[in-house]
Amino acid sequence: MHFDAHTDTWEDEPGRIYHHGTMFRHAVNEGLIVPERSAQIGIRTYNEDTMGFHILDAPHVHAAGTDSVIEAVRTITAGHKVYRHLRHRLSRSRLRARHRLRP
């Protein structure tokens, strides 16, 4: 499960490989992820090459609702181990303050 606004499956740019926008492309190409058993949830950008991922984009999530999304993910991942990736945009200082972590 990948919760994010972006698919992070973009092709490498000249001189830039393995950056934040390509990590899931590399993971699929290296056999680390089975995209047919993976869901990308909340996507707001469009990438024509889904690489086989199930895309539950933001408009779908809002229209279908939480229960529907949960059921879709259960169906997609049924019987398989799940890794959850949640991309959250908090500054490190706010994250430390929120969780009372030391710098």
Question: Would you summarize the structure shown here?
Answer:
With 103 residues, this protein is α/β, with parallel strands linked by helices.
Give the topology, please:
Blueprint lengths: L1 E2 L19 H7 L9 E5 L10 E4 H7 L1 H12 L7 E2 L5 H8 L4
Parallel strand pairs: 1-2, 1-4, 2-3
Keywords:
4 helices, 4 strands, 103 residues, alpha/beta, four-stranded parallel beta sheet
Task: Describe the fold and architecture.
- The protein has helices spanning 23-29, 58-64, 66-77, 92-99; strands at residues 2-3, 39-43, 54-57, 85-86.
- The protein has 103 residues and is an alpha/beta fold.
- It has one domain (2-99).
- A 4-stranded parallel beta sheet has the order 3-2-1-4.
- Strand 1, helix 1 (23-29) and strand 2 form a beta-alpha-beta unit.
- The longest helix has 12 residues, at 66-77.
Helix content: 25-40%
Please give the number of β-strands: 4
Largest sheet: 4 strands, parallel
From the N-terminal CA to the C-terminal CA, the straight-line distance is 29 Å
Which strand order spans the largest sheet, edge to edge or round the barrel? 3-2-1-4
- Number of helical segments with 4 or more residues: 4
Overall pLDDT, averaged? 85
Q: Low-confidence segments, ≥5 residues, pLDDT <50?
A: none
Strand content: 5-15%
Number of domains: 1
Secondary-structure-based class equals alpha/beta
The H/E string reads: EHEEHHEH
Radius of gyration: 15 Å
Q: In one word, what is the shape?
A: globular
